[in-house]
Design goal:
Structural class: mainly alpha
Shape: globular
Distance between the termini: 11 Å
Number of helices: 5
Oligomer: single chain
Amino acid sequence: MSKQQLVDMIEAFDRLAAADFTMGAQWRAVHEICQAHEGEAPFDWGHALCHRIEGDEWNADYWYRRAGKRRENRPVAEEWSAMRAELSTHR
């Protein structure tokens, strides 16, 4: 994983956040980025958040496990804020 790939995911999630985490083109763009890097923990974590947004909790939990994370019972916006802060330290 390059730093630029991580930046690309963060920026895509920022655009999704600006769209209030709604399903649509921004969601698909983030999901595609995460799928392209399956097996890399930061992207698996992003994949988990995508499926939370989608409402597929079972699938989200699978990706959280793959990322070595646990799903927190907090709003998606708060989850993204915490995730963004942690991922930004890797940039």
